[in-house]
Amino acid sequence: MPYKVPRDEVDMAWFRSVVHGLSPIEAYFRAEYHDFERMPAEGAALVVGNHGPFAIDTPLLVRHTWKSRRRVLRMLADRALFTVPIVRDLLTGFGTLEGEPNAAMHLLERGHLVGVYPGGVREAFKGPEGRHRVKDYWGKSLGFVRLAMRAGVPIVPVACAGIDDIYVQLKTAEELQGSLVARLLQKYMNNPKYSVALFAGAGVLPLPARLVYQVGDPIVMPGTGEAAANDRALVERTRDEVAEKLERLIDEADAKRAKALGGPLDIAVAAVRDLADSRRRTAR
Question: 2 phi and psi, to 5 degrees?
């Protein structure tokens, strides 16, 4: 299938200005970063993380990868997002790629860091019962493992604790499935997989939940090349291994986050989240 070959490099003047402009967002979420020395200083790798609503976790991950390792993390995003002109321009300027395996392979073969969220929309809009979990939301996601095997690169897991607390859900995506809003979104995106949850934050802003990022040790693929990538049982075992290691990383990051909690903002965020969860349980 034809695809547009991505630019090997981004417009670094524009990229640096965006990274610098993210400082207030980093301060708003009081972001912490741990063990970023595990992020490869050179050579290709596939960075895999847990996903939060509206991808708010992504810019800070890209920002700190640049600040700490002086490397541009080229994220993969859903192709449908590139159908929106303004969003497309912002994503492209930030070095983001359409979620096209051949385009990702192009960059991995040239030594770049490429980032992906295997859970995609399903994980980002999961209900509160799935907070800080990924395995149940990765479903049939095998492409990222096959990509790493074909490219012969390690997978670097990166957890973000707190990303599931930046909004509370008033209605889950499942509860809104079939609604007018969901149908309009699916029609606009030309894909029935899209749904939407009803979120609430601090007015028009997300809740100022503290975010803690934790990088894990690179995971070397148990096999490389086409033979390994076509071995479904091997790919599925590897996917499950990555998911389990990422969940342990989330728990590790959450433990570090818990030690820092206790200020007025943290108390307020926890109170809003607990109230929303309580109301949801009562409504059931």
Answer: -65, 150
Tokens read off for 255? 């433990």
What domains are defined for the chain? 12-168+207-261 (3.40.1130.10)
Burial of 183 (0-12, 13-18, 19+ CB in 10 A): middle
Tens-digit pLDDT profile for residues 131-188: 788 988 898 899 999 999 999 999 999 999 999 999 887 776 666 666 665 566 555 5
Q: Compute CA distances 192 → 139, 176, 184, 199, whole Å.
A: 16, 13, 10, 21
**DSSP class of residue 25?**
H
How many helical (H) and strand (E) elements, i.e. helices and strands, does the chain have?
Answer: 12, 9
CB 103 within 8 A of CB 97: yes
Q: How many CB atoms lie within 10 A of CB 70?
A: 8
Whether 115 contacts 69, CB under 8 Å: no
Q: What is the pTM of this model?
A: 0.88
Query: Where does the chain show beta strands of DSSP type E?
Result: 32-34, 45-49, 73-77, 97-98, 113-116, 155-161, 168-171, 198-200, 212-215
Taking CA atoms, 80 is separated from 97, 120, 121, 173, 211, in Å, by 12, 12, 11, 18, 27
Q: Are 91 and 77 in contact (CB under 8 A)?
A: yes
Exposure on the CB side of residue 150, measured as CA atoms within 13 A:
17
DSSP string, 226-242: HHHHT-HHHHHHHHHHH
Q: Are 219 and 242 in contact (CB under 8 A)?
A: yes
C-alpha–C-alpha distance, residues 191 and 185, integer Å: 9
Amino acid letter, residue 111: G
